[in-house]
Design a protein that fits this description.
Length: 670
């Protein structure tokens, strides 16, 4: 009996030490003491096997090998949660609940990127561990669950209970394992989630034990049996029993606090010791949960917000061709719709023939997609290992897809062009470009509306935009065009006449002239007439204006149709002068290259970039080794990570605010 009593005593000591070390991160025993107790318990169990508990802490090292996984039917189904991907869908979830007559509090929990598990106890002892499976039937993984140090083998209270949680692998654990595997010339584990899923499904529990898996417990399927009224109380109850519950869970009062929590952990995500892929939002009140009920697949009282994916896979179903305002032909990927960083992507530019060939893209390929600079959808690569032999080779077209003209490829360039200046596609694209935000900024004349007006014959040329008022009666008869919207559009058109020269220059669509170059030219020459008089040689002397761009500018102002267009716009009252501020000097800005990422509360990105340009700096859209400073606001993109990687100086909102407020009116000192 002394041996039995000592085995029980040692079991309690070691279980408590495991709990303090792995769950509380607050050990009270030294490693030497812990090892001494383990050895003593192992010796006693070997001598008196009849007293050894099936849940003895000595079983943590694994060793049990099974032939195959048995099936376990969940007493209460393990339903999945419906996914949402943006603020609008979160608000819709909250609104639906409030329309049902409730005023809920919510619990926000980090969505751990691992494998769901169910753990069943009888009289406080672990009986089974199971995977979620199909939600009704899972796989018996008890032999591996026992190796997870944060899963109690025995609870503090001798109760019957089932809890559910996420089995995962920490980032540091994965790094250590992969270093060991690299030394042994073994394939590396791809990521924490796959490593956890593969480890928990090992037939040999010794392998699972070596993988050092972890858990967060997040759900009590039958809380009413324990007199619990809220989900948050259930989390605290499970924590008191000895389970590891995530300390970052938060009780929130309303939708704004939910969004604040999401924003906070989107920023903290890279610095956590484990992977998360979103935030779970649950109605806190259990009676309210019961009344809201379930669909066939999901509870109506919870959702899982998924963080925007940086890179996802989808199918390339076709490659189509579009004609730009300069006649340039662009191949475009048609994709099976996929959500990337919170928005649905159906198309992505493939730039030119060489780009498609270099990436070896075929129609039917599974491809990876990401948002370049967090904005523009980009095809990263084809997953060639996923090919099945039915994919179609890419063929560059020989004729314009709109007018049928034979395409030409200019010497020294990679792009194909439709040389037909009367091609309708070139015309529409040119008109759309003229009205866009960085050009003349005519709100209400977007791509679809411009196409409609072009097809209806209202706008066939740039001057027609300024004669649109003559079609006012016709516009009022169109579906979706009320009197107020028409007035707003006509006012926006009239207001655009007052724009500074750089907007007009960009809007005219001179090949190679972007908004930044247009600003440089406008500041230099002040008027459109002055710019039109410059020779190619004079233009080439300017910084960032090469021989090709100089020729494009010169040729534009030599063409009779363009001269007629400019004279027409002058007659319509279009401003032809630079109206912006003169370039000034500031030691923090002048001569430096900047990138802005995220949201600054008191200024728009365009305003910040304009300020930088006005003080002799350069505002760029991408981070490179030439970047001097990255200005970082709320919800920054991947640019901030690249800046840190390159050791580039970072200014937060407070730093930018200080520098902006210190700017003076002294002109640039030569």
């Amino acid at each position: 009996m002394e041996a039995k009593k000592r085995i029980e005593e040692l079991t309690n000591i070691i279980n408590q030490a495991n709990y303090e070390y792995y769950t509380l991160s607050n050990p009270t025993l030294t490693d030497q003491e812990f090892d001494k107790y383990i050895r003593e318990l192992e010796n006693l169990e070997n001598e008196y096997p009849e007293y050894a508990s099936p849940n003895s802490p000595t079983k943590r090292v694994g060793g049990e090998v099974i032939d195959k996984f048995k099936k376990i039917r969940h007493r209460i189904p393990m339903l999945s949660l419906p996914d949402v991907f943006n603020e609008e869908e979160i608000r819709a979830f909250d609104e639906r609940i409030r329309k049902s007559g409730f005023h809920p509090e919510y619990v926000c929990e980090l969505k751990i990127d691992g494998l769901s598990g169910s753990f069943h106890y009888e009289e406080g002892n672990l009986i089974t561990g199971a995977t979620r499976g199909d939600g009704v039937v899972g796989e018996d993984i008890t032999h591996n669950v026992k190796t997870i140090r944060t899963i109690p083998l025995s609870l503090k209270d001798k109760i019957d209970i089932e809890v559910r949680g996420e089995i995962f692998m920490g980032r540091e654990t994965l790094a250590v394992l992969n270093k060991e595997r690299e030394e042994k010339k073994l394939p590396l584990l791809q990521n924490c989630r796959n490593a956890a899923a593969g480890s928990i499904r090992q037939l040999d529990s010794k392998i699972a034990a070596e993988r050092k898996l972890d858990t967060w417990i997040y759900h009590l399927p039958n809380p009413e049996d324990y007199g619990i009224k809220t989900h948050y109380e259930a989390l605290k109850f499970m924590e008191q029993l000895g389970f590891k519950v995530n300390p970052n869970n938060r009780l929130v009062k309303n939708i704004d606090e939910i969004l604040k929590f999401i924003e906070e952990y989107q920023e903290k995500r890279p610095y956590l010791s484990y992977d998360i892929d979103g935030v779970v939002i649950k109605v806190n009140d259990l009676e309210m949960q019961s009344e809201l009920g379930y669909t066939a697949k999901h509870p109506r009282w919870a959702i899982a917000y998924k963080f925007p994916a940086e890179e996802v896979l989808t199918k390339l179903t076709d490659i189509i061709f579009t004609v730009g305002r300069t006649g340039r032909i662009t191949p475009n990927a048609v994709l099976e719709p996929v959500i990337v960083m919170g928005s649905t992507i159906k198309r992505a530019t493939l730039h030119n023939e060489d780009y498609v060939i270099e990436k070896d893209l075929k129609i039917g390929d599974i491809v990876s997609i990401r948002k370049a600079g967090d904005v523009i959808p980009e095809v990263v690569e084809a997953k060639k290992e996923r090919r099945v032999g039915k994919e179609l080779e890419f063929q560059m077209i020989q004729n314009c897809p709109i007018c049928g003209s034979i395409l030409e490829k200019k010497v020294g360039q990679v792009d194909h062009y439709c040389m037909n200046h009367l091609c309708p596609a070139r015309h529409i694209e040119g008109l759309i470009h003229f009205c866009e935000r960085k050009a003349m900024n005519i709100d209400g004349l977007g791509e679809k509306i411009m196409e409609d007006f072009f097809n209806l014959g209202f706008i066939k040329s740039i001057p027609d935009i300024y004669h649109l008022e003559t079609h006012k009666k016709d516009l009022q008869e169109l579906e979706g065009y009320g009197k107020k919207s028409i007035e707003n559009l006509l006012n926006a058109i009239e207001e655009s006449k007052k724009n500074s020269l750089e907007r007009l220059l960009f809007g005219l669509g001179i090949e190679g002239i972007g908004d930044k170059t247009a600003l440089v030219l406008a500041k230099k020459y002040k008027t459109l007439d002055a710019l039109a008089l410059q020779s190619e040689e004079e233009l080439r002397k300017m910084k960032d204006i090469g021989s090709i761009l100089a020729k494009n500018i010169h040729d534009f102002f030599e063409h009779v149709d363009n001269i007629a267009l400019i004279n027409n716009l002058k007659d319509l009252g279009m401003n032809m002068n630079y109206l912006g501020p003169e370039e000034k000097y500031n030691e923090n800005i002048s001569g430096k290259r900047f990138v802005v990422t995220g949201t600054i509360s008191f200024m728009s990105r365009e305003e910040i970039e304009a300020t930088i340009e006005n003080y002799g700096g350069n505002a760029s859209g991408s981070v490179s080794s030439k970047t001097n400073v990255v200005i970082v606001g709320e919800k920054p993109g991947s640019k901030v990570d690249k800046a840190k990687e390159l050791g580039i100086e970072i200014w937060d909102e407070a730093k930018w605010s200080t520098i902006y407020n210190s700017l003076n009116d002294n002109p640039k000192q030569e």
